[in-house]
Write a structure and sequence with these properties.
This protein is mainly alpha-helical. It contains seven helices and three strands. The protein has a three-stranded antiparallel sheet.
C-alpha cells in the first residue's frame, strides 16, 4: 500500500463536503437573487424568521459564523430594512437583532426557495433525511 494513500484527494472526506457545499450555495444564488439576498443573508433570515429576536452572539452560534463574518451580513440586512440591531436594555454589551415588518413580509416570498432547490439535489426524501442526520452528526449536534 502506498504510504501516501491517505493524502489523495479522493480519500478526503472533507473534499466532497466542501465541493458539495459550494455547489449547493451556487445553486441557491439565482433563486435567492429574486429575494435580493445572498446565501449567508438567507440563512440569517431563516433564523430570524424562526426566532424574531435574538442576540448577535446567539445568531452566530446558530449559523456557525463568527462576528467578523456576521456583522457585515447584519449591516446589509439592516440597510435593506429587514432587521434592526439595537443594544440590550439589560446589558449594553449585548447587541440584539430583531426582524422588521418588511423582514417578516419577505418570509412569504421565501416559501418557494426550499421547493425550488429540492429538485436540484439529486436525492430522494429518504436520502435527504439520511444526509441531513449525518451532517448534523458531523457538526456534533445530534439532530
Amino acid at each position: 500500500m502506498d504510504k501516501y494513500e491517505t493524502l489523495k484527494l479522493k480519500n478526503q472526506l472533507c473534499f466532497p463536503l466542501y465541493a458539495a457545499s459550494k455547489e449547493i450555495v451556487r445553486k441557491y444564488a439565482p433563486v435567492l437573487e429574486k429575494l435580493g439576498l445572498t446565501y449567508t443573508q438567507y440563512i440569517a433570515m431563516l433564523v430570524m424568521w424562526e426566532e424574531g429576536e435574538l442576540s448577535v452572539k446567539e445568531l452566530g452560534e446558530r449559523l456557525y459564523l463568527d462576528s467578523g463574518t456576521l456583522t457585515p451580513v447584519l449591516k446589509t440586512l439592516e440597510k435593506k430594512g429587514l432587521v434592526k440591531r439595537s443594544r440590550s436594555k439589560e446589558d449594553e454589551r449585548v447587541l440584539i437583532v430583531k426582524t422588521t415588518a418588511a423582514g417578516e413580509r419577505m418570509k412569504d416570498d421565501a416559501l418557494s426557495v426550499p421547493r425550488e432547490l429540492a429538485c436540484c439535489m439529486n436525492l430522494d426524501l429518504k436520502e435527504s433525511k439520511q444526509l441531513y442526520a449525518l451532517l448534523y452528526k458531523v457538526l456534533g449536534c445530534g439532530k
